[in-house]
Amino acid sequence: MKTIFRFDHFTGALRASNLPVSVNAECHAGLSRLDASLRATFWRWELGALAILIASFNLPLLFGHPALDFMLHPAAVRAGEWWRVLTHPFVHVSWYHLALDAAAFFLGYVELGERRFVERLLIVVASGAGSLLAAVFAASAIEAHGLCGLSGIAHGLTAVVALELMRNETDRLIRASALVFFLVVVGKSIVEAMTDNILFASWHLGSLGTPIAVCHAGGVLGALFAWLCALARTTPAEADPARLAQTPPAELGCPLHQT
After folding, report:
1. Do the Cβ atoms of 108 and 101 come closer than 8 Å?
2. Which of 45, 81, 93, 216 could form a disulfide with 76 if both were Cys (CB 3.0 to 4.6 A apart)?
3. How many CB atoms lie within 10 A of CB 148?
């Protein structure tokens, strides 16, 4: 049986034990506080690490040019510079480009804070992979201009956040707003992929380089695929926190046993 260690297992085991009610409640409260404290600490470190990672790849902007050695150029990758496949989303061509992409990325990412780290990572990686594959197979401009930026991933995160709100919120207005937002993001990505042009490009206040519009659609498709995979692995108890708290440890794969 697969073993999963979570504080919910221990609190469930405490409820099933023969400890006095007062001791049981105190242990449960203590574990809950510790769990919340650890989650908050790890979450702050995670966001900080992402911010440092993005900032470090854009330090050359201080000297007036992007980090050319880390952008994705297919010819360079074919020549053996494989790291460009991993680093290109973090590189941006201008401060305006960086501010726009980083803001959209973090606004979407923080909304996924309730999900497991592995699930967040899966969504980001799948969105980035979808964005890259769409550019490689559907856009000839990548050979001449290369590829960089977080906009494809940001579009994917935005779509997933809208789906999460539709799935988890009980307020009808919020769910309706999330549906509209989801349709706008998906519709925008489809139009851009079909026309090979970024919508409202003339409205931008700074340089975005040579945008590859199909990346946004690829990012959305990749993120939706990862979200569906994560959803398929979610048990009914995990989908409902109240039900999770009442689920016996044995059903969750806890190594503790009832006495």
Report:
1. no
2. 81
3. 27
CA geometry: angle 44, 45, 48, nearest 5 deg: 85
What is d(CA 51, CA 232) in angstroms, rounded to the nearest whole number? Answer: 30
pLDDT value of position 88: 95
Query: Which residue type, as a one-letter code, is found at position 218?
Result: G
Q: What is the pLDDT of residues 110-142, one digit of tens each?
A: 999 888 899 999 999 999 999 999 999 886 778
Alpha carbons 119 and 233: distance in angstroms, whole number: 10
Inform me whether the pLDDT recorded for 24 exceeds 60. Answer: no
Alpha-carbon distance of 142 to 148, in angstroms, equals 10
Residue 6 pLDDT greater than 70, yes or no: no
| Cα 149 from chain centroid (whole Å) | 15
The predicted structure's pLDDT at residue 159 = 96
Looking at 1.20.1540, 1.10.260, 2.60.40, 2.40.128, the CATH number of the domain 62-247 comes to 1.20.1540
Domain ranges, ordered by start, for the chain: 62-247
Report the DSSP beta bridge partners of residue 147.
Answer: 72
User: Do the beta carbons of residue 104 and residue 195 sit within 8 Å?
Assistant: no
* CA–CA distance, 59 with 102 (Å, rounded to integer): 14
Bridge partners of residue 72, in order along the sequence = 147
pLDDT of residue 74: 92
Encoded tokens for 103: 């803001």
Rounded Cα gap, residues 215 and 193, in angstroms = 8
When the pLDDT of each residue in the chain is averaged and rounded to a whole number, the result is: 83
pLDDT in tens, 198-242: 887 777 777 888 888 899 999 999 999 999 998 887 655 555 544
The CA distance from 179 to 44, in Å, is 30
